[in-house]
Specification:
It is a single chain. By secondary structure, the protein is mostly helical. It is built from one helix and two strands. The chain has a two-stranded antiparallel ribbon with strand order 1-2. Strand 1 and strand 2 (92-95) form a beta hairpin. It is rod-shaped, with a radius of gyration of 43 Å.
Length: 98
């Protein structure tokens, strides 16, 4: 009877060791999962910060380079009196007539 109880005790110890090994594997997987989530969270924060900076810079550029509505005009009088003169604006040409 003593041998049988020792075998039972050994089997119980083996079962407990097996359970502990399963638990340690589960805990290891949970720790890895936690590390992975932390990395993903940091990466998401970095990408969000970069996107915010890009959006801010784009808004800055849009406000910095405004559309100019100023037009420069030059008044030229007596084009006919200037020797060898002609004025070209686009397809329009004004020349001195002889």
């Amino acid at each position: 009877m003593n041998i049988k109880s020792e075998k039972d005790e050994i089997n119980n110890i083996r079962n407990e060791v097996h359970k502990l090994q399963e638990q340690s594997l589960a805990l290891e997987l949970l720790k890895d999962y936690k590390k992975q989530n932390k990395r993903q969270f940091i990466i998401i924060l970095v990408i969000l910060g970069m996107f915010t900076a890009l959006l801010g810079y784009t808004i800055y550029l849009l406000n910095d380079f405004g559309v100019s509505t100023e037009t420069d005009t030059i008044d030229i009088d007596n084009v006919e009196e200037i020797d060898n003169s002609h004025i070209k604006i686009g397809d329009d040409v004004w020349e001195k007539s002889n």
